[in-house]
TrEMBL record:
Organism annotation: Alginatibacterium sediminis
NCBIfam families: ccoP
Predominant cellular place of this UniProt entry's protein: membrane
Lineage, uppermost ranks: Bacteria, Pseudomonadati, Pseudomonadota, Gammaproteobacteria, Alteromonadales
Keyword set, alphabetical order: Cell inner membrane, Cell membrane, Electron transport, Heme, Hydrogen ion transport, Ion transport, Iron, Membrane, Metal-binding, Oxidoreductase, Repeat, Respiratory chain, Transmembrane, Transmembrane helix, Transport
A Gene Ontology BP annotation from the UniProt entry: proton transmembrane transport
Residues engaged in binding heme c 1: 167, 170-171, 297
Function of the protein: C-type cytochrome. Part of the cbb3-type cytochrome c oxidase complex.
Cellular compartment(s): Cell inner membrane
Protein's name according to its UniProt entry: Cbb3-type cytochrome c oxidase subunit
Pfam families, A to Z: Cytochrome_CBB3 (PF13442), FixP_N (PF14715)
GO CC, any one term: plasma membrane
Cofactor binding mode and count: Binds 2 heme C groups per subunit.
Length: 323
């Protein structure tokens, strides 16, 4: 928050409280010229208005809430950039990397600093860490095979919860993905759908890179290669245009293979199955060839740890298996 915004928030907050105090004091003074308890001369529907002051208990309640509010603002963050006297934080702000987060945690190790988020994470790990370990490991201390976990109802329930908490923002609650985010329920995998490949993806992340080809192919070349690519997936296109595109497809074959079936080692998608990550319309394919694509799957090993990832991998693997 900028200094100006911080000052503005502080002034408005304290000004509102001061205004409440002044209003409360003003309403407790008898400025009507009528004795307390006497009639104000107003009657409506048989009800007469009397000049009665605000009840004492009500007045005291208002003052108590004002004192409580000032105390709260002094102890906890709330007045602009003022951190509060208690040192309490809801979470760490401004952290840009996992390493920086770990450094902050270490710095707090010997200090009485209350951090709500870190406290809840530590409590959750203490309470549920053993549950994840008991699910993920065999009696000999090795991880249970993912194929075996994928048939374990308890493991799948835990894996589903972890998935919903951490993965559904991109791949959707049903894991069917959306434009730019793969569907995890079919058998079309950019980097392979084996249990080991899925776990590797979750652990280390993926960084896809489809270059832009407009400078190499030109506008006409992009249209021609688009026709060839659409024909590979069984679409009806202009034959002459597709033939011209096939001759220029050599620049694509290095990643997608000469027959367009893709390469899992590179994360290059299969172009023959009519499954499209960024859309399969002519316009969408032309945009991909013209501008390129750069999809990133973040690494989760430092965020969730291998035990949880092992369980999530089993859940994701189960989604694409025949039930």
């Amino acid at each position: 928050m900028s200094s100006f915004l911080s000052i503005m928030v502080t002034v408005i907050t304290l000004g509102s409280i001061v205004g409440c105090i002044l209003l409360l004091r003003a309403t407790n003074k008898n400025k009507t010229g009528v004795d307390e308890g006497a009639s104000m001369g107003h009657t409506f529907d048989g009800i007469e208005e009397l000049n009665n002051p605000l009840p004492k208990w009500w007045t005291y309640m208002f003052y108590i809430t004002i004192v409580y509010g000032l105390g709260y603002l002094a102890l906890y963050p709330g007045l602009g950039n003022f951190p509060g006297l208690s040192g309490w934080k809801s979470s760490e702000q401004g952290i840009k990397s996992i390493a920086e987060k770990d450094q902050r945690i270490e710095a707090y190790a010997d200090k009485a600093v209350a951090n709500q988020y870190l406290s809840e994470v530590a409590h959750a790990e203490e309470r549920f860490g053993e549950v994840f370990r008991s699910i993920a490991y065999q009696s000999d201390g090795n991880y249970r095979p993912i194929e075996e976990l994928a048939t374990d109802e308890d493991a799948l329930k835990i894996g589903q919860r972890l998935y919903l908490q951490n993965c559904s923002q991109c791949h959707g609650a049903t894991a069917r993905g959306s434009t730019g985010f793969p569907n995890l329920t079919d058998n079309d995998w950019l980097y392979g759908g084996t249990p080991e490949a899925i776990k590797t993806t979750l652990m280390n992340g993926r960084a896809g890179q489809m270059p832009a080809w407009i400078d190499v192919l030109g506008a006409d070349g992009v249209k021609e290669v688009t026709s060839h690519v659409l024909r590979l997936s069984g679409r009806k296109v202009n034959t002459l245009e597709a033939e011209a595109g096939a001759a220029k497809f050599a620049v694509c074959a290095a990643c997608h293979a000469a027959d367009g079936t893709g390469n899992e080692a590179l994360g290059a998608p299969n172009l023959t199955n009519n499954i499209w990550l960024y859309g399969g319309s002519r316009k969408a394919v032309e945009e991909t060839l013209t501008y390129g694509r750069a999809g990133v799957m973040p690494a989760w090993k430092d965020i969730l740890g291998e035990d949880k990832i092992h369980v999530i991998s089993a859940y994701v693997y189960s989604l694409s298996q025949e039930k």
